[in-house]
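User: I'm preparing a small set of examples for a lab meeting where we compare how different chains pack in three dimensions. I only have the primary sequence for this one, and I'd like the structure in token form so I can line it up with the others. Please keep the answer compact; I'll paste it straight into my notes.
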Amino acid sequence: MDNTRKAPSPAPETEGSPYVIEMRGITKVFPGIVANDNITLQLKRGEIHALLGENGAGKSTLMSVLFGLYQPEQGEIYKDGKKVVINNPNDANALGIGMVHQHFKLVDVFSVLDNIILGIEPASLGFLRKKEARQKVLDLSKNYGLNVDPDALVEDITVGMQQRTEILKMLYRENEILIFDEPTAVLTPQEITELMNIMKGLAAEGKSILFISHKLNEIMEVADRCTVLRKGKYVGTVNVSDVTKEDLSAMMVGRDVKFAVDKEDAKPAETILDVKNLTVKSKLHRKNAVSDVSLQVRVGEIVCIAGIDGNGQSEFVAALTGLQKAEPGAQILLCGEDVTKKTIRYKNTHGISHIPEDRHKHGLVLDYTLQENIVLQRYFEVEFQKYGFIRFDKVRAYADSLIERFDIRSGQGADTIARSMSGGNQQKAIIAREMDRAHKLLVAVQPTRGLDVGAIEFIHEQIVATRDAGSAVLLISLELDEVMNLSDRILVMYEGEITGEFDPKTTSVEELGLYMAGAKRQNGQKGGENHA
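Assistant: Understood. Below is the structure token output for the 532-residue chain.
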């Protein structure tokens, strides 16, 4: 299916250009791959322009060129019809260009406030004037419904809160051209709706927005025009009002995509995971992050914990997988064995596979190669080592097989450094590693975060296949479409407690939303009850 369209003709260099930003013939090359191949992108004043493409299509690279993080081999950038040179992000900021990055550019040991003002700290006579900056951040947070704690340390806040910090960092600098790189990847449905409204409001104020997203519903709702890239090449630019979601997905992946998950009814059998009275302390405040929660997951079912980000899901998974200690009195049984106090490696080698929430912090060693990351939890097995020496030929062959099977796109194949890969392909590498390992329980936290529709379709098929092959699946997702389509049973977590249990066939997104917001609670439901 050929959806390729002719690239737009560049406008002549004039001060009266209809485009606030025009990127003409941009080519960016990395070792082994042409990330951007002669791409032209035109952004009108006051419009929301979506940039759509598969993982590794070159979207983030193109925006990084515009923000001065990369220098193109070929091509020119024009602002308001005048040619500009953007050597670094300071040049971009001076031109009024701001960017919310897909992988956050935050200093973990700094506070939210310190991260926001970093580089433009208000000072008088050599002294920081943080009080005024703090008030401005609080006002922006309130006005845009972002609700951040300016005094919290970044290392202690949720991924969703880090995303909001990035957005505030850009708003604080009062940029007029705003680049949003996958801004909703870690936000809840309510937060996404709010962000969509914020973006519309910013555009109405005259700001121009470039919006990278894999979520077609969001593009259909908020974007005026959409430019599609595929494998580094320009496919076409369309008015969003003139196309359907199916049209965009076909342009993106070159084929029709199924949006519904095909799966038979669950046939639950014996219990694989039995969590009893799990309590986990919060790192942010005195209140427990998880309060006396009990639940079971059985062979042949996908159980989803749904909830607004920051309601204890992250801490629950951390205690389950060994990343955080549970309070005394808790029991975590895996196939009847108490693994509450076992090491992370013990849990990994005895049946738990874990797709983590934060792929950079807990999923990958970014400066290792792709093949090294793929065998991180298996390099000590007989297959991959002999007499204590790693058998690199076996590692390479195994990595190559997963790269092909999961369509992990990397410029130098198995030798690609993980840090240089696109976020979606980093995610696919983790998913390949965790799903291919022998496991009894798959703990999948936001497994399709940052993936395109084609990759999501494939990963959902793999999760269902894992269930049908005799494993149990515990899914933690903020995507209500994913929750409703993939789950066999849904548990809602609110303020560290399970407040309701639902059958996706008999409930609605609206009903779940009420429980997720704490407006409703099933009779007698408490964190310590057994939701079998």
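A couple of notes for your slides: The chain has four domains: 1-96+175-257, 106-173, 258-351+439-532, 368-437. The two ends are 47 Å apart (CA to CA).

User: Perfect, thanks.
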